[in-house]
Amino acid sequence: MIAAERREIVIAGGGFAGSILARALLAEGRDVLLLERGRHPRFALGESSTPLANLALERLAARYGFDDLWDLAAHGRWRRRLPEVGRGLKRGFCFYEHEPGEVFSPGPSSSRRLVVAASPDDDAADNQWLRADVDCFLFERARAEGVDCREETAVEVISVPGDADGDQVRLRAGDRIVEADLLVDATGGSPLAASLGAGEASPRLRTNLVYSHFAGVEPFERAEGWPDSPFPERWSASHHLLEEGWMYQLRFDDGSMSAGFLLAEDHGGAAETVFASLLGRYPSLARQFADSEPLRPMASRSGVAYRRDRAAGHGWLLLPHSYAFADPMFSTGIAWSLLAVERVADLCRKGLPADGLLARYGRLLAAEADHIDRLLVAAYRSMPDMERFAAPAMVYFAAASFDELRQRLLDSPSDGWCWQGFLGAEDGRRRLFEELDERCVSAGVSGSLAEWVGPAIERWNLIGLLDPRRRNAYPVDLEDMERRAVQVAAGLGLDAAELRRRWPRLRSPDHLSAALA
Prior knowledge:
The protein is an alpha/beta fold. It is built from 18 helices and 22 strands. The chain has helices at about 15-25, 50-65, 65-70, 75-80, 130-145, 190-195, 270-280, 285-290, 320-325, 335-345, 355-380, 385-410, 430-440, 445-455, 480-485, 485-490, 495-500, 510-515; strands at about 5-10, 30-35, 85-90, 90-95, 115, 125-130, 150, 155-160, 170-175, 175-185, 200, 210-215, 235-240, 245-250, 255-265, 295, 300, 305-310, 310-315, 315-320, 325, 475. Strands 4, 5, 12, 13, 14, 15, 16, 17 and 22 form a nine-stranded mixed sheet that branches. Strands 1, 2, 7, 8, 9, 10, 19 and 20 form an eight-stranded mixed sheet that branches. The longest helix has 28 residues, at about 355-380. The protein is globular, with a radius of gyration of 23 Å. About 50% of the residues are buried. The model has no long low-confidence stretch (mean pLDDT about 95).
């Protein structure tokens, strides 16, 4: 019989979340083994970061002294100090409503175009993550700091507590047998979760993906006569709303682009054929890709959405991307994963978490998965009509910006920001998302949603969304926020004078050392 290797915590999956978690757990004094099925660098999707993700990176950096995470949290810092790690400037989100056979036009009062900035300038901006580079970089950082990291090591569950004697999860890791007091599944939707006892649940969204990375894609730029934009729109997470679903475009600083179609129906055929056929229906997209070349084989994926029936059990837990995924529409994945990294590190601060704490973790992930699902189902039910689609978009941006302002301007709650439900999953915004979902099922005309959304988000709308003077293009306007200081302060539970004293917190220092001083 092969003797088992005993480990306190085993993390299966060496992507960014697994690698950062391994470093944090090691810093907390835990014995950690990090296992990666492939070999870095390897391709991965999930490439678009957001301000909430950056705030989580900064908190992890400050807690553990991880300078590299601090630098990854803003485009200027990343570009200056980690130039070898591929990334793209992301100034915000753009949405365009297309009609088959027609060149795109923003329409009257920019009614078919929506632009929402996420930063005031390039230096403080978000990033598109070239995941092959980012994941490799963070995995090697974990190894350099002393984490036991093993690549080309597939993980198979032999038994979990309750299936056999003992209180450890028993694994086959490559050619070794490993017993873990806690197994963290960071694989991202692999069969590992099912072997731990997390059964499949039926997702409401059933979409298909056709995608690749490309060179030579022309920018989708403003033409003459378009309304002004708060930033160059090529540097955004671009969403093209179509009859069949939608297309994402994420541009990297080296000129390459990640692009793919999320489709409500399976169009069949080879990925290259489906991609070309869809481009052919939309002249503005076809012109963009006329001289492009795929940098890797075109690929397709059916059944993009998935869900497990639980996220934790005795001796194991799932990170969000192993537990549930609905759609990349609003770039929620990286931020949600990093919140969970913070939570798991917190749970393991004084040793291994008891079952009650694992259950709390699982309940929170379930509430958040439901919350995100309501938003994304509403978005699909509203597409491609921009007047209808604006309702879920405004709900998302109000909820996300409210949390960004809270986390920058308010003091942390006693158990940390990471335990506050993602996008308000456990506060009044839960009912907001529920009502959005309900209305998108029943609303027969655009007007009912358009009339509902303004009053519905008013409590959380601290950044001036739905201001008709903006013509569907919303900058990060700090001067405007200062003019509305009384309203913003009231929304955050502060008085205006205290809010003004805290304004400098809206910008992070360039170096981690300054943040810790």
